[in-house]
Amino acid sequence: MSKNSSIFKRSMPIIAAGLSAKFNIRVNVSGSEAYTNGAVINVPDYDLDTQEDKHVMQGYLVHEVGHNRYNSFDIDPNTKPNTPIAHTLWNCIEDIRIEMALMQEFAGTKIWLNMLAQRLYDTRKIRGFTNTDHPSTIFVFYALYYGRFKYLSQKAYGLVLPECEKAFLQTFNQHILNRMKGVLSQVDELNSSQDSVDMTLALLKMLNDEKEKSESNQQDDSGADQGNGPSDAQDDSDEGLADRIAITLDANASDIADLGDVKSVLDDFTTNAACNVTTALSETNYRSTPEAGKKLNASVKMTANGLIGRMMGMMQTKRRVVCRDNDHGRLNTRVLHRSVRGDRNIFRSEGKRKTIDTCVVLMLDISGSMNNNVSGISKTRFEIARDTVIALTLALERCKIKTIVTVYPYKNLYTCGLLKKENENAERVLAERMVNITPDGQTPIAMAYYHSVCELIKSKCKRKIIFSITDGEPTIGNATPTREYIQEAKKEMVESYGIGIGKDIEHHSMTHIYGKNYVVIDDLKNLKSDLFKMIEKVID
After folding, report:
1. What is the CA radius of gyration of the chain?
2. Contact at 8 Å (CB) between 146 and 177?
3. Which residues contact 25 (CB under 8 A, 6 or more apart)?
4. Contact by Cβ (8 Å): 343, 320
């Protein structure tokens, strides 16, 4: 199947962010295990090859969102199912309840949930069963399959329902089947997880009633055999029914097959090949040092002010409002005399002022090589890069351009650090966090770029730009993937530029990754002139 959307539209961080915003529930992408604890949903960074993969993953995530949103964890402890069959049956009914609620409140989720069901069928996570399966499996999963097909219109379950119904009738009988369907017909009236528990208990009580009825019939037949002649109170097909029901009610957890578990769909996904399973964008916890931060801000203030002056001047030119005479608007007394000759263009109207609806990510390399000195001056590459980021961020924000700052590698080779969020004020938080950074490790730029773009795409700003500040040479195997990511990011209207630190920078790598879209900075004094051509593109 062709890949018909970019890797970023199919990326787990973007999907998670979208669902978090839509449903107001926290969805994390990290680690190697998928789980939910009632407050947070966590999922690894899976590699989604196709648009269909994306929808299947969305189906799984909204299913988990449903458990959180509709309070699957809120039940009376005194009625909590305490046997394996009761617990499994409750989970099945609860799954139907929360998915029905999702489809009613968010109509678009029906497509994702149906695609999830179809993927489960295609990978045989949903399968038919026969009368050789354990009676508990037949009872529980017929309820699940029938409920999903009948009340959620999930056709994948309907494909196996006929053979499952045949096994049900061979194991139980038509009367029990009809009573089960009667209880399940109330599923659209379930408003809480406690209601699902009550329905579970009703089904098990029904089954127990049928067991007692069957035992009574067997006793009547036994009495008839001893002296009163044959009885037709029990159908031949019900022979041993009470025993099969008893086996069902007393089933151990190992007796009940694991069919249709939505989480099993994750078994067929692999983690993102470009990013290790532990990859994440993590908020940094560098110790803030306010006094040292103020000194650092002050040291770059002159450079920042120089950038601000030039940027403001350019913005005034770019955003100049053109005034024209018109037949409506504000009266222009200077041309009032035109009215004598019938000219109605005696009003002044102003054109719309251009707005700079832009967000910029500054992605800072803090690898070990950034500790090296820049040729000809006494500062390290990191010090130049750090000051460049602070000055540029201050200037951009002064010009009403939103900024995000990320650093890499953060703590380990597979984590990118979120140093400054879009809604934070750079002058207040950035410098005081940066003073305690110590460069170390390799340069996993592909991982950092991937997560920086994912963070940037979450922004509501119309225009999105990434500045990558680095000393040039990435970790082996990272240059080409980064170049490919840049091409993919263009599909999402993300522009990418490189800022190389030091005269002795590896130009071959910079050219390979950024083409002509990079500049080299070797001294903060030259920042205004060296960077300005690139900043012109941001303001344009």
Report:
1. 33
2. no
3. 19, 41, 65, 68, 69
4. no
Q: What's the number of CA atoms in the CB half-sphere (13 Å) around residue 376?
A: 8
Query: What would the DSSP string read from start to end of 147-209?
Result: HHHHHH--HHHHTTHHHHHHHHHHHS-HHHHHHHHHHHTTGGG--SHHHHHHHHHHHHHHHHH
End-to-end, the C-alpha distance of the chain in Å comes to 39
Helix, strand or coil, per DSSP, at residue 452: helix
Tokens of 143: 């309820």
Q: Assign residue 229 a region (left: φ > 0; alpha: ψ between -120 and 50; beta: otherwise).
A: left
Domains of the chain: 290-320+355-539 (3.40.50.410), 322-353 (no CATH)
Write out pLDDT tens, residues 353-403. Answer: 556 789 999 999 999 999 998 877 888 999 999 999 999 999 999 988 999
- Residues whose CB is less than 8 angstroms from the CB of residue 341 and which lie 6 or more positions away in sequence, other chains included: none
pLDDT along the chain (540 residues), means of 10: 58 81 81 79 84 91 91 84 94 96 94 95 91 95 96 96 96 96 96 95 96 84 55 58 95 90 86 50 85 92 84 68 61 70 68 73 95 86 94 91 94 86 94 93 90 88 93 87 89 90 82 90 78 72
pLDDT on residue 2: 41
Q: What is the DSSP letter of 540?
A: -
Which of these, 138, 160, 408, lies nearest to 247 by C-alpha position? Answer: 138
Q: Do the beta carbons of residue 345 and residue 334 sit within 8 Å?
A: no
Reported as a single tens digit per residue, the pLDDT across 166-215 is 999 999 999 999 999 999 999 999 999 999 999 999 999 999 999 999 88
Query: Angle of helix 135-152 relative to helix 84-105, nearest 10 degrees?
Result: 10
d(CA 150, CA 142) in angstroms, rounded, equals 12
Strand 358-365 and strand 347-350: the pairing is unpaired
Question: Closest by alpha carbon to 104, among 187, 201, 199?
Answer: 187
Is residue 167 within 8 Å of 133, Cβ to Cβ?
Answer: yes
DSSP 218-241: HHHHHHIIIII----SS-GGGTTH
User: How many residues in the chain?
Assistant: 540
Provide the token pair at 137: 């499996």
